[in-house]
Amino acid sequence: MTTAPSGYRPEIDGLRAIAVLAVVLFHARVPGLSGGFVGVDVFFVISGYLIAGLIQREQAEGRFSIIAFYERRVRRILPALLAMLAVSGAAALILLPQDLQRFGSSLAAITVFASNIQFARWNDYFGFATGSAPLLHTWSLAVEEQFYIVFPVLLAVVGRWAARLLVPLLVLMTATSFGYSAWAAEHAPNLAFYSPLSRAWEFLVGVLLAVSSARAPVDRRIGDALAVVGLAAITWAIWRLTPASPFPGLNALAPCLGAALVIHGARAPGSRVARLLGVRPLVLVGLASYSLYLWHWPMIVFGSYYVLDEAWVTPARIVLAGLSVPVAFASWRWIERPFRGPDALLTRKSLFGAALAVSLALCLYGVGLRLSGGLPERFAPETLALTEPDSKAAFRCAGQPLERYADTCLIGDPSRRPSFVLWGDSHAAMYRDGLDMLARRQGVAGYDLTALGCTPLIGFSEPSWQACQDRNRRILEIIARERPRAVIIAGKWGPTFGPFIRPDSRGVWVRRTRHDPLFTQAEARAALDRTVADIRALGVEVYFVEDIPFILAAAPDRAARARAIGAPFRADITLEQYRQQLSAAAPLARALEARGLVRVVRPGGILCGPRTCGALAAGEPLYRDAGHLNRRGALRVAPAFGPVLTAAASAPARPVP
Fold this sequence. Notes:
The protein is mainly alpha-helical. 58% of the residues lie in helices and 6% in strands.
């Protein structure tokens, strides 16, 4: 069995500094660093390399102990982590009740290193990275500790009893984990991001580098060339990847293999890259990188929680990220270091006992916050009224099996034969409450055939969208069978949150999120034309609904924060900004309207005045988030659908040509 290289390597601390600064600046929203989240992947490779090397050296010297290994992990991880959690637990009392409840759940989860599982159940990482989850960053610590529950035992057993099989086994595990990661990044992106199964290969890249027989480059020029290529790969990932990139999977190869190349190439005697990475300022940041990672995100979240003007959020985040640096160095000097080294505080028994006691106390505190409903008594009733979750009744039919549509998905007067169909994604389902009220008033009925995430267009061939295409074709069959007088098609058409996205330099309408398919402009136009033609061929009128304004400040929790601190609050955009949002799809709809193929419904007009479009009415929010109306908003824009329901009630169904 090859013994891993030993000795302190300051350039690895320099690489740590690059990794942690990438993450911190990404969280601070510094422009141009859209892929800074890959710093975590660089950390995983470094961790695998260093820990595998340490275990192998101790095995070679006959002094490896599982208990001693976990003691080192406790001393390395827990003192600073528990301190950060305790401070965050006190600071969290500024949060609104629903955010405090979520904080309590994540606090309880991280004390047992399971916060990645918690966050995977809740939301996309980049959705939470907007700033409502102060412990979001602990997902990576949970993944790391889950890996190290199993890995040291495996390395110790195989290394001792079947040393020749160690490298082939690690290669097989790496390939299997990477294959799953690549598959999951496309088909289960939220799970892929948080799962230890999709992240294990990143640690194993470092492990293989440590335990393989690969020797350090003898020629400095070769070593530096490898290290420069590695740094270029990491830099490319930081600059070119975005939250929209499928991740980890194939896109994680650049930062992970880049880190491995830097670690390996910088081993060359006299390496200039090693000298560059080993400069004192970088090394100091690398030494404090764990504390900087721990403290920067809670400081950003808590510090910017009541910054309500979007123009000031990024500057506030950058300032808070800067302030986290001295806090991190204080944490490293007075919390991390005293628990490590030959003069470390506490014996093993006392250390384990204290860690268990503090972790249990924090866990119980988190559970208490969850069970208490987030301590709502801290806020005035008028503030709490804004934080009450909006009814999700509008979405109760979205995605229901189409076999039961006639029984469960009726809108309006149940005594009438349905004469219209609402078809689309969540941007169609949000109108249900308003349509239901209006339809009952006018004595008509319709079917809700919406499905979250399924744009009502026929003709896209991308495999990842196949389930929506199958559903859409079946909806056409229902329309042919039911013969309604009108079909309302609504979806997220705008360029800010498409599928219709502003063309890039190649004329391709680029993907915005990992869940959206990739469309060319010609494909989008062809799909809309085909969909309208297929509906009209059944003798049915088509009503195309323009999307409402996308308003980042529209979420009710922002209004609640403003009311809580007595601050003025605005949630609007200019009329010109709204027109810009419509610029991708509106020309297509106007062209169809001019040819008499569709009638366009414009609910956004009710939300807009001569100059601005707003998400509040009499101080009350009309939105449930930046792009979806709540029940109050749906009722407010319902008059825009009046002509549709009037036509559905009075016009006779046309015969099929």
